[in-house]
Amino acid sequence: MSSDKRIIRSAVIFYNETKPEAVRTLKQVLPALKARGVKVWIGRKPSALGDKLRIADIAVALGGDGTMLRAARTLAPRSIPLLGINSGGLGFLSGTDASEFKRHCDAILTGKFVLEERWMISVEAYRGRRRLFGPNIALNDCVIRCGDQARAISLNTRSAGRFVADYFGDGLIVSTPTGSTAYALAASGPIVDPRLDVLLIAPICPHTLTQRPLIIPAFDPLTVMLTARYAHEAPRVLLSLDGQLGCALKVGDEVRIARYEKPFKLLLNPDRSYYEILRRKLKWGER
Questions:
Q1: Less crowded by CB within 10 Å, the N or C end of the chain?
Q2: In the chain, where the domains are located
Q3: Beta strands 141-146 and 162-175: pairing type?
Q4: Are the CB atoms for 222 and 202 separated by under 8 Å?
């Protein structure tokens, strides 16, 4: 974690137009930035801003965590810092809320917010030698689960070529530390500090009493193969990244997961620690 000392002179703003609160927030944020001499470009999604992404100092996302996850896939390869202004629900990844932006605006533009790097995962799926999906990147997680049938699936996992386990249940979550407070948390996974360089493997409703979430080094690539416990077993299985991208899988397909080469850069309030966010957003530690 380090302080970003640049003076912010240009910004791209994108917002979730389906959220009335995000539209209202845009009407607050835009004049505040322009009044301070910041050049601003606006779009509904990062990919629509094209060349502006190469010259902007920061990106600003107005929405909830879903907006932030979509932004991460576009911004991480370009190394553009993102400030999230929560205009959605939980807003766990946001650096500030709409009600606080005016108070924090000068601190943001003068580099007093903290620049934190969150690493991501790169995911591909193969059917034999043919690539079905990817490479695509995710900030939170990669999920392999049974689709439209209430049936268990079998998944063989290997880390750096070494056998880890066979999982039999509803599916498997492979999460980054950032994603440990998302779907993996609901699957009884631990909360992992986002500064750690690890992967979290969390089975979804495993049909055993002994398989529990596992933390492994992020630098070892992970492979997950869909196998069949019984010859007639062929449920519909889905691969999903951050709940937004994905494809269907068949028995024999292999999913390859590796640490993405570039981190996602997130602007955060220096007066609010990760543990304070856990307490505020998730009511962590309350009795």
A1: C
A2: 2-119+263-282, 121-259
A3: antiparallel
A4: no
Three-class secondary structure of residue 287 per DSSP: coil
Q: Do domains 2-119+263-282 and 121-259 have the same CATH topology?
A: no
Q: Count Cβ atoms below 10 Å from residue 161 Cβ, excluding itself.
A: 8
Tens-of-pLDDT digits for all 287 residues of the chain? 444 455 899 999 988 888 888 899 999 999 999 999 999 999 877 777 778 888 899 999 998 889 899 999 999 999 999 999 988 677 888 888 877 888 889 889 998 899 999 999 999 999 999 999 989 999 999 999 988 777 889 999 999 999 999 999 999 999 999 999 999 999 999 999 999 999 999 999 999 988 999 999 999 999 999 998 765 566 789 999 999 999 999 999 999 999 999 999 999 988 888 998 899 888 887 77
Kindly give, in sequence order, each residue whose CB lies less than 8 Å from that of residue 210, ignoring residues fewer than 6 positions away: none
Domain 121-259, CATH number (from 3.40.1700.10, 3.30.465.10, 3.65.10.10, 2.60.200.30): 2.60.200.30
Among 102, 87, 90, 100, which Cα is nearest to 18's?
87
pTM: 0.91
| Dist. CA 167–CA 225, nearest whole Å | 10
The fold for domain 2-119+263-282 equals Rossmann fold (3.40.50)
**Dihedral (C-alpha) 123, 126, 131, 134: value to the nearest 10 degrees?**
-10
Beta strands in the chain (DSSP E): 2-3, 10-15, 39-43, 58-63, 82-86, 96-97, 114-118, 121-127, 130-138, 141-146, 153-159, 162-175, 198-206, 214-217, 222-227, 237-241, 245-249, 254-259, 264-268
